[in-house]
Amino acid sequence: MSKIETLKALLEAELGPSIKALVLDRGELTLTVKAADYLATAQLLRDHPSLKFEQLLDLCGVDYSSYKDQPWDGLRFCAVSHLLSITNNWRLRLKVFCPEDDLPSVASVTPVWNSANWFEREAFDLYGILFDGHEDLRRILTDYGFIGHPFRKDFPTSGHVEMRYDAEQKRVIYQPVTIEPREITPRIIREDNYGGLH
Question: Structure pTM?
Fold first, then answer.
């Protein structure tokens, strides 16, 4: 049994009914759990003597609407974490879908891995995912007055407002977007001798 298959069997034995999906694909293991079990699962993954996922390497939000340019029949927002066990030298992807699309929310895992702090703030800022129990959940990349969440697939590419420096007011001001949407058509070269080819 390979190392990753050993981890898969161990997760199946320890998590049992908490597992919504456990997929081994391309040498990577992805564990999906229910939102209600997310925090307890994170705690177990870190503290179980056979698992020991001491580090959270990354956490990001995902908007699954129109996933792979196809209609998506499922919950829209997901928080995805990448975990590392230094002790056992194995990795795990942990996924949890937010139970509501209108107000996406899951538990914060900052009490388990404090490295989740800024990652959760980023997922909140860009996707609007609320992390229940996070002590300082505020925007981290956009302005505090920014409206919307720019990584959501329904957010307009040009945004809602733009900012510029106003010399008269001697400060940065916000104004409606002045970029006009346009369709860009690639230039096609149809020369017979283009590039020295005959």
Answer: 0.82
